[in-house]
Amino acid sequence: MPDENRFIAYKIYPNAVVGLESSPMARDWMDESDDRFAYRCLPMVLTNQSGWTLRTIGDIRAYWFGGPKKTDVRIENEGEQAANCATCTFGSGIITFTISVLLKTLKGSCSF
After folding, report:
1. 48-54 contacts: CB < 8 A, separation 24 or more?
2. Can you tell me the mean pLDDT for 34-62?
3. Is the pLDDT of residue 5 over 70?
4. Ramachandran quadrant class, 108 (left: phi over 0; alpha: psi -120 to 50; beta: rest)
5. 54, 85 contact by CB (below 8 A)
6. pTM for this one?
7. 77 and 83 in contact (C-beta within 8 Å)?
């Protein structure tokens, strides 16, 4: 693999397990969104263009009850590795995922 497509993943937490894999730029669910609206989210589009997927280790279920408060979201993290990986920090149905690695591109890379 050419250096411009490589990076280093540093574990932030010593016992962290990371599901990191190459992924396609397009996503079926984004293609199927109303008028392909999901492609208008710049962070998602940039992440897709970088071509990597970080998978959670363990199941996560989230329920949003439609309100603006953090308490209007219930998150269930299953398994020790998934514990506290998803939280509701902002409310309004927004879920934040904490990843357990710090990614560093190699010199001269424009992957991220």
Report:
1. 48/23, 48/24, 49/25, 50/111, 50/112, 51/22, 51/23, 51/24, 51/25, 51/111, 52/20, 52/21, 52/22, 52/23, 53/19, 53/20, 53/21, 53/22, 53/23, 54/18, 54/19, 54/20, 54/99, 54/101
2. 81
3. no
4. left
5. no
6. 0.56
7. yes
pLDDT in tens, 55-111: 777 788 899 999 999 999 998 877 666 666 788 889 999 998 888 788 887 776 554
70 backbone dihedrals φ, ψ, rounded to 5°: -60, -35
64: β partners? 73
User: Shortest CA distance to 99 belongs to which of 2, 1, 9, 33?
Assistant: 9
